[in-house]
């Protein structure tokens, strides 16, 4: 179970979402694109329209702008895939070699996904305050990832409490700004640290900004999960394409995440092996300003600091050699070697 979730590195979810536009062929191409970009998982959204929205419910402003559809029912119905199609997508993702996930928006779809082998439950921001649904999902005792867009800390606390009291311990939170696209100035990435400290849980980031910079900053700030929308073409018709990454950009994101993880290191301040040769030739060493004869006592005026070959005494030893006796002649402009000075 969960062999594809490597907890030692950032888990990257390519949010295909509804960017298939209701076309399973497009959905399969999104799976291919997610795999080629290096994502750990590709995620869709599963719902039955009649179970989540009334027929007269208005769509969000950004949805109307991107689709022209005034009714949420009309919009969602056009994007809805059948359960049989989701089985095809799951099988295709396994064939391609990427983890298949989908966010359920109601209990029927959740039961369907879980009965078909989904090992991880991803909850969207819209369901964060749907405590009965969270309780239902948490009783499955599977790992859960919960987005927290639009939420107050009190609402996040209520969701966490509900999930944990229902028996799910393996819980991760995603900080999120539910605007499409989101303005970087609204992203408040420090909220990740606030939730991490408050709840003692892994915290990641679900992104809706344009470009990769905010995601990369989130990883540098400790995000354990990054979720970002993926589209084949940002100019396609549909509610989410405009704020999604195209395949090449998503591949750059994954590369950037892996580079940042590598760059974080272990926190121990010490030179790395690639610096050692450079250190030898750029650090100053103690050099004689004049010919020094055997028996002379070194004075400040006799010495200077220059770059050498790494075999002499470093500049940090300058004070320690003052007053030492020369036991082997040192030519002008030569390195002052330990072997040419008295021990005391």
TrEMBL record:
Protein name as annotated: N-acetylneuraminate synthase
Taxonomy, superkingdom: Bacteria
Residue ranges annotated for the AFP-like domain, each copy included: 285-344
Gene Ontology biological-process entries: carbohydrate biosynthetic process
EC number: 2.5.1.56
Claim: Ubl conjugation is one of the keywords in the record: no
High-level lineage: Bacteria, Pseudomonadati, Verrucomicrobiota, Verrucomicrobiia, Verrucomicrobiales
Enzyme class label: transferase
Keywords: Transferase
Organism expressing this protein natively: Oceaniferula marina
């Amino acid at each position: 179970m969960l062999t594809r979730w490597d907890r030692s590195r950032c888990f990257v979810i390519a949010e295909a979402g509804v960017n298939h536009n209701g076309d399973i062929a497009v959905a399969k191409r999104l799976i291919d694109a997610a795999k080629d970009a290096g994502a750990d998982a590709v995620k869709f959204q599963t719902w039955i329209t009649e179970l989540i929205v009334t027929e007269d419910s208005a769509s969000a402003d950004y949805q109307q702008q991107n689709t022209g559809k005034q009714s949420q029912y009309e919009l969602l119905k056009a994007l809805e895939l059948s359960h049989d199609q989701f089985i095809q997508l799951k099988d295709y993702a396994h064939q391609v070699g990427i983890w298949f996930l989908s966010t359920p928006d109601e209990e029927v779809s959740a039961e369907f996904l879980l009965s078909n082998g989904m090992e991880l439950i991803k909850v969207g921001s819209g369901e964060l305050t749907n405590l009965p649904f969270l309780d239902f999902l948490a009783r499955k005792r599977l790992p859960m990832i919960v987005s927290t867009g639009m939420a107050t800390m009190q609402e996040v606390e209520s969701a966490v409490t509900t999930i944990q009291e229902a028996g799910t311990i393996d819980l991760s939170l995603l900080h999120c700004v539910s605007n499409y696209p989101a303005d970087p100035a609204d992203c408040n990435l420090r909220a990740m640290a606030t939730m991490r400290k408050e709840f003692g849980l892994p915290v990641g980031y679900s992104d809706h900004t344009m470009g990769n910079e905010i995601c990369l900053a989130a990883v540098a700030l400790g995000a354990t999960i990054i979720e970002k929308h993926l589209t084949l073409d940002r100019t396609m018709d549909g509610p989410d394409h405009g704020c999604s990454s195209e395949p090449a950009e998503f591949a750059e994101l994954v590369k950037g995440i892996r580079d940042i993880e590598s760059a974080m290191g272990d926190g121990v301040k010490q030179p790395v092996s690639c610096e050692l040769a450079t250190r030898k030739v750029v650090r100053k060493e103690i050099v004689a300003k004049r010919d020094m004869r055997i028996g002379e006592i070194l004075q400040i005026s006799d010495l200077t600091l220059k770059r050498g070959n790494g075999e002499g005494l470093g500049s940090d030893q300058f004070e320690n050699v003052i007053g030492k006796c020369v036991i082997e002649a040192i030519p002008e402009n030569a390195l002052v070697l330990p072997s040419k000075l008295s021990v005391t």
